[in-house]
AsmA family protein
Amino acid sequence: MARDRPSRLARRIGLGVGALAGALVLFLATLVLLVDSGSVTRRVTELILPRASAALGRDVTVRGARLGVLPHPHVRFDGLRIAGRPGEPALAEAEALDVEVGLWPLLLSLGREVDIRAVSLVRPTVNVVRAADGSWSFDGLGARAAGAAPPSPEPTGSGRETVVAVGELRIEDGTIRVVDRSAGAEAAAVALTRLDLRASGIGAGQPLSLRFAAALAGDVQNLHADLEVSALSAAARTAGADRAAVEGSLRLSGLPLERIRALLPGALGHIVRAGKASLDATVTTADGAWRFDGHGDLADLSLRGQPASGHFRAAAALPLARPAAGRIDLTDLVVRGPGVDLGGHAQVELSPLRVRFVVTGPLLDLDAVMGVLPEQHAAPAARSAGDGGFLPPSLRRQLAAAQARGTVEVGSLRAGRVEATEVRARATLRDGVLALEEVQAAVYGGRFSGAGTRVDLGAREPAWRLAGRLSGLDLAAATKALSGDSPLAGALGGTLDVEGTGTEWATIREGVHGLAELALKDGVLTTADLGAPVRAAVSRVLRVAGRGGGAGQVAGADGRTTPIHDLAGSFTVRDGFLTSRAPVRFRAPFGDVQLGGRIGLDGRLELAGTAAVPWSALTGQTPAAGRPATLDVPLRVGGTLGSPSVSVDAGAALAGAASGQAKRAAGAARSGAERAGRRALDVLKGLGGGRR
């Protein structure tokens, strides 16, 4: 009997607890039934929508609202929409906005008192639009209309003001779309997906904590932010402060660069083809600006289809009122890959774009750099799309609006078949024109120096000017590199001041124009012996004169090359030719040569002049008194540098020699007659003197 008492007591306690729970459920159900659901939804609507519209400066509307009780009381707004600018899609749309309210205040006031506990956005889509003028759809967001005041707190049924403080804001599975209309046609790209956000402590005078994660240009969440926003005290608001301090961290990993071109500045947006970026930075606000300080890595960059890598440190200051007008400092910048091994630092002002830079390193291959351009701009054969220009129109506009100044020091600089070493230059970019204010470089065993070289990158085809001085250039190495052959050898020097357009040699050589002063020391024409036809003509002259054996005494007759000494000439460059402004003079083993005419940039020769062959070289004897020291042999040089042809006018040489002999004989006769006359006159004068 005593043993049954505990079990009966337990059953009674269980029945009591069950009855109490049932009564509580019944009580709650009764209270919920007493709540005017229409009143609750209206009250929440009146609290949320006007305040949201005023805070954003955009109209906020919903398609409908309804009250839900389980698992906790909430008002669900279907079809939330935040208006965009005229002619643009909605700034934001969401499947639903759930507003969770406190249970007891709602029940005890029978729906007249609403305590907002949490706000959840379900699958929102945000449309970020860049207009044709370059402005963004979020510019001016949060600004109230002129003269408008924020909605005043609404009194409750008891006469007390309702204080709205949202305990938590949640965003679930959001998406941000970027719509770019700046190029004239609309192009859309997904920037962020799988966006999840948790924010707590939302409300005046409360510290805000924010946790953020999203997938940027990918399927996996790779962007994470953890931010704390300090509470803004009433004293600070009275003093005019309208923004609290922010601090936290930002982490980005494995960002595929080719999928975010629309988000990059114009120049970068056109050259990125592949690669991944990572960034780890601290975030703060100070002195009215967002401040980012951290380091990043670049991996699997595509240069000529091969991977490159790099790393950098970055510090950015973006004004809170206008982030696009901020500044970025890049330090410890290193990029390594096929044809590129560079480091340096840069300061970038975003709007308007202003860049100061220092670039150093052992290697820069311009072909590798240009290899990162999109395929339609990388090769001339593929530039038929668009306007056919070397650079895309939007990139040319970006360059025209940008300014840059800096220095470049590169151990080896390659551009096509041209290679320079020990390159040092000061460069500026203004109005789309890249100018080298000063440049020094070693080129094919010689030096190039000068100022005034420029390239107009804003033109449809780059217009350029090359100005400078050459000294000691190994002509054989240069021509071998450029054309695959070396018909000329020697040390080339002189000055160049030429202009042209385009980047392809076939186009350049027909349009280039300007002046060139050139000198060649210790030169050699490696493709022919120009003296052979001259010797043949001289041999004919000597046979006529009865001295046929003398031709063999002409020096340097190897039949294969022609040594050229102390060549100097001044040329006009136009229509694909170097045209001599005065006869070009040089010394050859068979005599002193002077030639006028033109030399084609494709190697064609159209020259004419004379070779002054020394008689001493022909006969082995010093010319007799009164005889000229040389025989002038007229000649023409045609063909090409690779296969020159020489024609000699032997008849003119013979006529010249005969004419010279006749003139000398007549001159001698005149001189003899004059001497005889003077002697006779002297005799007559002597006789006359004797008579007196």
Observations:
- Residues 527-668 form one domain.
